[in-house]
Amino acid sequence: MTALPSRLDPASPAYTAAREAMLAKLAEIDAEHAKALAGGGPKYTERHRSRGKLLARERIELLLDPDAPFLELSPLAAWGSDYPVGASVVTGVGVVEGVECVVVANDPTVRGGASNPWTGRKTVRAMEIAEQNRMPLVNLVESGGADLPGQSEIFIPGGRLFRDLTRLSAAGIPTIALVFGNSTAGGAYVPGMSDHVVMVRERSKVFLGGPPLVKMATGEESDDESLGGAEMHARVSGLADHLADDEYDALRIGRRIVARLNHRKPGPAPARSAEPLHDPEELAGIVPDDLRTPFDPREVLARILDGSEFDAFKPAYGAGLVTGWGRLHGHPVGVLANAQGVLFSEESQKAAQFIQLANRARTPLLFLHNTTGYMVGKKYEQGGIVKHGAMMINAVANSTVPHLSVLMGASYGAGHYGMCGRAYDPRFLFSWPSAKSAVMGPKQLAGVLSIVARASAQAKGRAYADEDDAAMREAVERQIEAESLPLFLSGRVYDDGVIDPRDTRTVLGLCLSAVHNAPVRGADGFGVFRM
User: Fold this and answer.
1) Is 381 exposed, middle or buried (0-12, 13-18, 19+ CB in 10 A)?
2) Bridge-based pairing state of the strands 321-328 and 311-312
3) Euclidean distance between CA atoms 352 and 11, whole angstroms
4) Distance between CA atoms of 341 and 352, rounded to whole angstroms?
5) Minimum mean pLDDT among 117-126, 274-283, 480-489, 512-521: which range?
């Protein structure tokens, strides 16, 4: 392979300005992450601790192998909504007894761990990752079921959680539930539909309806323990497979269950890796604050690939898209990285061929986004941009090797689709704080609406005031800008998290390790490519 050179000048004013802008964005993201880490706040955290209970992240830490990394997913879920940042649940990928698992932990300091609409989205996404990558799923359960005031947005989609639990089991993907407290109503079906269930003596309570609901529905008087206590489920109903003495014992038993799963990764181990030749710290200053200013994605590749080594594919053709082969933490990857904002016919055709080759070679694909979409205009329409863009999207949609996506800069229009955006089911998708994603840029979208409004007014013989147009454009630009930012997108679980660019190599390494829990297979065929 050829080692990538670097032309980045860390002493230049442009680099300094880009770095300062990135660090400012990271500080804003860190402040929002802190809200998720705080859970329900000091009052409810202390109340939880006073009951002798561990916090959600403490449970996760004790479940995982000592010093094992934890790749937290969707930590900003529910940002910008009426619900707390984090959506009252912690999800992620971690190593238990040498086995990579997806972990879902209710945060009982936030409304008793009750599920809101964003809890559901975040949990469904974690379960998708478990299914796609064939990783065991461990649920750390303490949930009061649905957050009842929001039931209209929870009840219908919430049923998917239980459906997916059964489908994971049917697919041979182990599901484990460690129950630490109340698991009520819908929450009761998590242990009810898991392969392995651990309950804690005098702590775990699992019932479809608690004593008040039973009293209202049937008139029957009952208490927590006889209705749904751990002892009852271990000795009478049989729901509990293991009865733990305390939370620490439950986590110990959970680790032993994972150790006995006989879970093995298919395929060969990754090759020996080498650190990049160029400093990953410099990734903080590569993307300009103004995304209209181009940057070279090879500077990113030089700081994330093993040994900074990269074999370019068709470097002289469709130069606006960098394609080629490398390794990342010993795993082979095929790379598609936008070198300029616009995708032309040449880039689209090149991408389609490269994706086919990666499928033939059974090599995962890494998409690095910085695109404003496919080129428009009479010349390009006549040149076939629609069919060539469709060719690229066809290849992405029908590719079956694992896809990883990172939104570094712009990711607009159908270019977002062609570069494997969320709708195209990448195994993992992360954003940098510099990323923006929407149908098109704010100024372009506002300009289109202005043209349409003027034409409509003219057709109706009405005047169209310039001051009204200016106000409309300003309002639209402000709205689209806000809805394009990573906090907004991550809050809606449109990515798996906003990451520090300097952590990109580590995050992608963890993702590549995770995806290799499932066999890597190339596509048997693609749809019809229009020529």
Assistant:
1) exposed
2) antiparallel
3) 39
4) 18
5) 480-489
Enter the tokens of residue 240: 């509990």
The encoded tokens of residue 283 equal: 């990734």
Contact criterion met (CB below 8 Å) for 65 and 95: yes
Q: In the chain, how long is the greatest CA-to-CA distance? A: 81
H, E, C per residue of 452-484: HHHHHHHHCCCCCCHHHHHHHHHHHHHHHHHHH
The strand pairing partners of 436, in sequence order, are: 410
Check pLDDT > 80 for residue 215.
no
What are the tens digits of pLDDT across the range 53-108? 999 999 999 999 999 999 999 999 999 999 999 999 999 999 999 999 999 999 99
Tokens of 122: 């975040």
Both structure tokens of 162: 């239980």
What's the CA gap between 237 and 242, in Å, rounded? 13
Average pLDDT of span 311-334: 98
Q: Among residues 237, 259, 234, which one has the least CA distance to residue 245?
A: 234
Q: Give the position of tokens 């069919």.
A: 387
Rounded Cα gap, residues 390 and 395, in angstroms = 8
The 3-class SS string of 44-109 reads: HHHHHHHCCCCCHHHHHHHHCCCCCCEEEECCCCCCCCCCCCCCCEEEEEEEECCEEEEEEEECCC
Name beta bridge partners: 374: 343
Q: Which residue has the tokens 């392979």?
A: 1
Distance between CA atoms of residues 242 and 383, nearest Å: 66
**Cα 107 to chain centroid, rounded:** 19
